[in-house]
Amino acid sequence: MDVLIKIKDREGVVHDLQAPTDMAMNIMELCKAYELPVEGTCGGMAMCASCQCYVLNDIALPEMGDDEEAMLSEAFYVKPNSRLGCQIPITESLEGLELELAPES
What we know:
Elements: E1 2-8, E2 14-20, H1 27-33, E3 52-55, H2 66-74, E4 82-84, E5 98-101
Parallel strand pairs: 1-5
Antiparallel strand pairs: 1-2, 3-4, 3-5
């Protein structure tokens, strides 16, 4: 099953993305699959913050782990609604999630 996730890129364009829930993907990988400008330099290990995004609506996300919290404490442009895309697995509960890509550091 696919879920709809809306991602606003750094130019302000909103992309409606169909995200498969059966491929063990995360938000960073989804962005890369749709060729949105997300580097994912560390390969999804919560070690670079190049996939930082802002959560724009009230969708329940997995709790932030220690690695993600530590990386965001050192990253640029962090807001209270910041998350690392690589740490958000795509599941059916993300239907309707709205995100905005953080500025590149």
